Amino acid sequence: MTRKARGLTVVFVPDEGGESRTLRFSPRGLRLSLILGGFTLVLGAGMFVSWWFFALHTARSWNLQARVDSLEAERVQVIALAEELAKVEEEYERIRLLFGPSETPVAPDLWLPPSGLPGSRSGGLGPESEDDLPTSWPLTQSGFITQPLIAQDAGDHPGLDIAIPTDSYIRAAGSGRVVRVGEDPLYGLFVVLEHGEGYQTVYAHASLILVNRGQSVRREEVIALTGSTGQSTAPHLHFEILLDGLPLDPLSMVEQPS
Question: 0.70 exceeded by the pTM?
Answer without folding.
Answer: no
